[in-house]
Amino acid sequence: MKIGLYFGTFNPIHVGHLIIANHIAENADLEQVWLVVTPHNPHKKKETLLDDYHRLQMAHLATEDYPKLKPSDIEFKLSQPNYTVNTLVQLEEKYPDHEFSLIMGEDNLKSLHKWKNFEVLLQNHDIYVYPRLSPEQEDLDLKNHSKVHLIDAPIVEISSTFIRASIKEGKNIQPLLPSKVWEYIDHNNFYKK
Prior knowledge:
This protein is α/β, with parallel strands linked by helices. The protein has seven helices and six strands, in the order βαβαβαβααββαα. It has helices spanning 15-27, 52-63, 84-94, 106-111, 118-124, 160-168, 179-187; strands spanning 2-8, 32-37, 69-72, 99-105, 127-130, 148-150. It has a six-stranded parallel sheet with strand order 3-2-1-4-5-6, with helices on both faces. Helix 2 packs antiparallel against helix 7.
């Protein structure tokens, strides 16, 4: 089975994540997209993250109606901070019959050369890249690599940071979240402080 891995803290998961994940699941040569909930991104402050299992639960609620989208907690069991190359080793051991690809925004492709063992990632895995608005439209060095596939996906500029700030300010951001995710956040009073 061909699986696309869409990594993120999903803090919280929102409709932008679903638009991208579903578009790629429906339009790329993948059978499923797994949303890999990251416990701790080395580039983000830990104290801004909700508990791992709350974010995983929201990912489950958000993807209930999307048969090709599956949340994954594979990184919960790995030492932190974790690197994508390590996650892929674990997944390949656990699911030897699956073929794993990466899904990332253009902004991540620009910095891929800084990732741990990025050459191994490029050698062994296809990378599906969705467009992002960027102030500088620099040429992407890796965009012509044989393993890199630029996807003509919708450009979605919704951020979890904006959603958290809006909730804290008491603003109604319900249209930006799947309804069950909004209910879960509201019921648990998340992001209000």
